[in-house]
Amino acid sequence: MIKVVAKSFSKPDKLDEILKLTAEMVEKTVKEEGCIKYEAFQDIRAPEVIIIIEEWESQEALNRHMASEHFRRIVPKLNELRQKASEVNVLKKLF
Amino acid sequence: MIKVVAKSFSKPDKLDEILKLTAEMVEKTVKEEGCIKYEAFQDIRAPEVIIIIEEWESQEALNRHMASEHFRRIVPKLNELRQKASEVNVLKKLF
Questions:
Q1: pTM reported for the whole predicted model
Q2: 16-55 in A: which are within 8 Å (CB) of B?
Q3: Domain count, chain A
Q4: Which pLDDT tens digit goes with each residue over B47-86?
């Protein structure tokens, strides 16, 4: 099992657009084979901070996700609306 | 429901100590009232990056956690073993 935490920082005036694209990303991604969980969260004190928490059955499933039509179409759009590059951590469970 | 993502950065030579204290923290915290989930992960490419993903029934439960004996005893010790302050995001679910 692979866990991914992806933290991004929206440009202040682009949050609505980010949320719309993120909603589409979640809707499409949860239907992917090998996707156990894909959930979007927002910091309650810093609304520009969006964190996606993902769980994948395998590295192959995660690779397929990153090659999917929706990933390749939506992620570049999201990147244009962000203050800076997202911080992505691919994780293994310790305890 | 409240989600917390806490990212920390271990001093390179302190990782073993950090992992021991983190294991104790997980063991104690999962027994707390109002704790739905409290899991520790490590970045597969950057082992000094430890991320705790938490789920709490309420803000009150999270407050109790931060006032607990184990939190008040272990967190200051962890902080001494970290390169810099942890990044803690308290989150609400979007999608």
A1: 0.96
A2: 19, 22-23, 26-27, 39-46, 49-51, 53
A3: 1
A4: 999 999 999 999 999 999 999 999 999 999 999 999 999 9
